Amino acid sequence: MAILAIVNSPGITKTQYESLRPHVKWETEHPTGAILHSSAFDEKGGLHVVDVWNSEAEMKQYFEKRLLPAMQKSGITPPEPKIYPLHNLNIFPSAEKHKAKGK
């Protein structure tokens, strides 16, 4: 079952997030089961992520094999995502202009 994963992590800064990208290779080596990844930072600089995955098992595998080791290496405390069964997903053509360039 597809899932929506929401992470609110006020302790992870934009600099830390950007430092992880080359290690987890989200944009260049797409994780198995990942459908959508989005991130934003609030007015205090805290990270907020919304992901959609084919399954919670595939998300956990990515976290364990790629994300958590990179976070530990960088001294970043891993956040705990909130998981919900996906009800609906629409991705519109205008989303393309917001894609991050691979690093």
Can you lay out the helices and strands and say which pair or pack?
Elements: E1 3-9, H1 14-24, E2 34-41, E3 47-53, H2 56-74, E4 82-85
Antiparallel strand pairs: 1-3, 1-4, 2-3
Structural key phrases:
single chain; 103 residues; alpha+beta; Alpha-Beta Plaits; 4-stranded antiparallel beta sheet; 2 helices; 4 strands
Descriptive account of the structure:
The protein is α+β, with helices and mostly antiparallel strands. It has one domain: Alpha-Beta Plaits, CATH 3.30.70. The chain contains two helices and four strands, in the order E-H-E-E-H-E. It has helices at residues 14-24, 56-74; strands spanning 3-9, 34-41, 47-53, 82-85. A four-stranded antiparallel sheet has the order 2-3-1-4, with helices on one face. Strand 2 (34-41) and strand 3 (47-53) form a beta hairpin. The radius of gyration is 13 Å and the shape is globular. It starts with a strand and ends in an 18-residue tail after the last strand. 12% of the residues are buried. The mean pLDDT is 93.
Quick take:
The protein is of the alpha+beta class and 103 residues long.
Large-scale geometry: globular
CATH class: Alpha Beta
What sequence of helices (H) and strands (E) makes up the elements? Answer: EHEEHE
Biggest pleated sheet: 4 strands, antiparallel
Low-confidence blocks of residues: none
Helix content: 25-40%
First and last CA, distance: 31 Å
Strand content: 25-35%
Q: Using DSSP, what is the number of strands?
A: 4
Instruction: Indicate the CATH topology.
Output: Alpha-Beta Plaits
**Overall mean pLDDT score?**
93
CATH architecture: 2-Layer Sandwich
- Radius of gyration (CA) equals 13 Å
